[in-house]
Amino acid sequence: MRLLVATTNQNKVREIRQLLEGLPFDIVTLREWPDLEAPEETGRTFEENARGKALYYAAATGELTVAEDSGLAIDVLDGTPGVESARFGGADTSYPEKFALIYHALRAKGSLESAARFVCALVLAKGERVLFETRGTVEGRIAPEPKGAGGFGYDPIFFYAPYGQTFAEAGDLKAAVSHRGEAFRALRAYLESRF
Question: What's the pTM value of the predicted model, to 2 decimals?
């Protein structure tokens, strides 16, 4: 059986393959459909975007499809960047530039630190039906400055207190507690019970 992981982000693909390792699925990605255009992400929530992507790609490819929408929500900034995490500051903005924008916004609020969380909404679809959906979160705070060379995305500015370091410093420990890890472990349990 095939399972389409609906992303072109190779960092996410690597994490997801590890989380689903050992399941009886041939994991494929959107690289197999290079001409398939991405749907517009117009949802106001992570769940709406994940659902839209899963249903779109399941219908377009005919594959059992898992899609996720994830990002960073910062309390002092009213949940920003939230569903705009990947596009925050513009589609071509680098993550160091995104970090600078976040620290600038935090300074404007009078605080360089804030509670924050990573969120991952995940949806499994086949044809026009949603088969399973879940949400994973991990609580942390914004680090005073970016630290660490591992991970990807916002990991260098996300400080996870139980580890005493950012996700970019945590290495392989990240998967045990991350938002994506939580969501994909729930998916794994669902798949194991159904297939």
Answer: 0.94
Task: Phi first, then psi: give them for residue 81, nearest 5 degrees.
Answer: -80, -15
Q: Which helix (H) or strand (E) holds 136?
A: strand 129-142
Q: Give the residues across from 2 on adjacent strands.
A: 26
Buried b (16+ CB within 10 A) or exposed e, 118-144: bbbbbbbbeeeeebbbbbbbbebbbbe
Distances (CA, A) of 3 to 29, 125, 158, 177, 188: 8, 10, 30, 24, 12
Residues serving a catalytic function are: 69
Average pLDDT, the chain: 96
Say if CB 133 and CB 121 are below 8 A apart.
Answer: yes
Give the position of tokens 């194991």: 192
More confident residue, 91 or 27: 27
CB 36 within 8 A of CB 61: yes
Structure tokens at 51: 């659902």
List, for residues 33-43, the tens digit of each pLDDT value.
999 999 999 99
What is the rounded CA–CA span in Å between residue 87 and residue 37? 17
Residue 114: what are its φ and ψ, rounded to 5°? -160, 150
